[in-house]
Amino acid sequence: GSGPKRAFCINVYNMMVIRAYGAWGVPSTMLQRLQFFGTVAYDLGGLVYSLNDLENGLLRGNRRPPASLSKPFSADDPRMPFVLQERDARIHFALNCGANSSPPVKYFTG
């Protein structure tokens, strides 16, 4: 099933946020925040994923983020095969974007 993939994406996302905040600091304006989630990225298996790519591309079934006019991945994007088709609203209780209202960081398994 998609459980292990979902857990992996959540764990990587949370780790990336913590690592980036430690390395570059916490964005202080809305523009910095939008840029942060679009530019902080890691190479996973030869494909590069930003925080937005992980959240909206993989975990939310390649859905358009609120502040965007387009989906994260185009139809011919090599990351498309990794998009989770089953959406799970519980990711809101798992992803920690560093806000005071974010859930505590936990380690997820499939």
Blueprint (SSEs and pairs):
Blueprint: H1 3-24, H2 30-39, E1 41-44, E2 47-50, H3 51-59
Antiparallel strand pairs: 1-2
Helix pairs in contact: 1-3
3D architecture notes:
The chain has 3 helices and 2 strands, in the order ααββα. A two-stranded antiparallel sheet has the order 1-2. The protein has helices at 3-24, 30-39, 51-59, and strands spanning 41-44, 47-50. The mean pLDDT is 92. It has 110 residues and is mainly alpha-helical.
Please give a quick description of this structure:
With 110 residues, this protein is mainly alpha-helical.
- Give the CA-based shape: globular
Distance between the termini: 9 Å
Low-confidence stretches: none
Q: What proportion of the residues is helical, as a percent range?
A: 25-40%
Strand order of the largest sheet: 1-2
Task: State the assembly state of the protein chains.
Answer: single chain
Q: Biggest β-sheet: count, sense, barrel?
A: 2 strands, antiparallel
Backbone structural class: mainly alpha
The averaged pLDDT comes out at 92
Report the radius of gyration as a whole number of Å: 13 Å
| Strand residues, percent | 5-15%
> What is the ordering of alpha helices and beta strands?
HHEEH
User: What's the count of strands?
Assistant: 2
How many distinct helices?
A: 3
Name some characteristics of this structure.
110 residues; mainly alpha; two-stranded antiparallel sheet; 7% strand
